[in-house]
Amino acid sequence: MTIEAADDTVVSSDEGDHGVEAYLTLAFKAGSDLRADLLARQDADDSANLVAISDVVGSPGVALTSSMESWLNDHVAGPRRQAIEQVKRRFTADKPHNGAAGCLVEAEREAIEDRCVEQRRLARKSVRTRRRSDLERIEILERDIAQHQAEYATEKARLGREPVIPNRWLYLGLMIAVGIAEAFINYDAFRALAWATPFIATGTTFAIGMVIALAAHMHGTLLKRFRSYFDDDVDENQRWVAARMFSIGTLGLGLALTAVSYSRNVYFAQTALGDLAFGGGTDGGASKAWIIGGSLLGNMIVYVIGVVLAFLMHDEVARYPELRLKLDSDIGKRTALVSVIDQEISQSLKAAETTRKKALEQLDHRDAAQRNAPKYSENRRLFEQVAGQDSQVLGALQAYRSALVKSRKADGAIYKQRDLDDDEHIVLLDGPGYQHLPIKLKYN
Q: 191-206 pLDDT, tens per residue?
C-alpha cells in the first residue's frame, strides 16, 4: 500500500501503519495553513518581557516558546505521537536471532540523555540540601567580600599605594628575638636573687623579655598610626583603642623596668658585699651606676629596637591593612567552602556520567544486534520518513522563531530557559543567542 504525502514523498506502508500515513499527510511548508496558523500566534510571545522557552526535559520539544508549544500540541503532537508509537511497536516486534526486543534507538538515546540531565540536577539539589548552612555562610561571606572590596578600593584610590602588611612569621620572629635579647641582658641579675630557683629566674627573665617586646610592639604601632587614632575626624572609639594600647604598653614597660631595677639592686648589693669581704675597691657609686643604669640602658636600647621594628613593619592607616587581611581571609574561607561543595557535586556528576556512558554502550550493543532482524531496514526507512516530516515541522518552528526574534529586536526581549545542569538556575539569552539554540522534537 502506498500514499503520496503532502511533501510529495512516496511512502510505503503495511496494513495498520495509518499513524505514520496520517502524520505524513500534514503540510508545514511555506504557504501552508498550518504554518500560517503558527505565524499568527506571535502576539502571545510579543507581550512578555521575558519569553520562556521549553526545557530539554519534560516537553515535546526543546527551545520552544509557549505559542510554539501550543501550536505543536494543537496540530502536530497527536498525529506525530501515533506515528512514533507505531514505529516503536514495529521495532519491538521485529526481534533478531537472539530473541531480544528491538527498539527505536533515537528514542532510547534521548531517554538516557534525559535521565542523565535529571541525575545531574538532582545531584546539585541534594548537595544544596545537605550543605544548606554552608551555602548560607557563603552568601554572608560574599556580602562581606563585596563590602570590603568597595572599602578597600576607596582607601587604595585615596592613598595611591598598597597597604604595608608585615610578614606575620617574620615579625613574630623579630619580636621574639627582641624578647630573647632582653633575657640575655637580665638573666644574671634574676639568677642572683636568693629566693629564685633556676627555673623561676629563667621563667621571670623570659617573661619580662616578652613584656618589653609587647610594649615595643604596642608603642611602635601606635606611633606609626598616630594620625589614624588622633586626627580630628577619627571616631572616639578609635581613640579609646589607642589609649588602651598606650596604657597596656606603658604599664608593661614600667613593671618590667621596675623588676629589672629591683633585681639589679639586689645583684649590686651582693656584688658590693663580696668586694668588701675580699678587700675590693670602694668605688660603689660608679659601680652601682654601671650595674643598674647600664642594664636599664641596655633594656631601653632593645626596647627602642622593638619600637622601630613595629614602626617600620606596620601601615600608618590602621584600617587599610586590616581591610586587605579581612578581604583575603573571607575570600579564602569562601573558596574553601565552595571547593568542598564543588567536590561533592563533581563526584555525583561523575557517577551520572558513568551511568550514561554504560547505558549508551549497552544501547549500541542492542542496536548492533537488532540490525540482523528481518524487517530492520524497512523499519528504519519508515522512521526516516517520520524524521523527514519532522524536518518540515522544524522548518515551520524556525521560521516562527526568526519572525519573533526580528519583531522583538527593538524592545530587547530576553529569552529564559532552565539551566541544563542546574534545576534552580535560569539561563538568559538575547535574540541572537536564542537563534543559535537548536530546536528539537523529542522521540521518547
A: 767 666 777 778 888 8
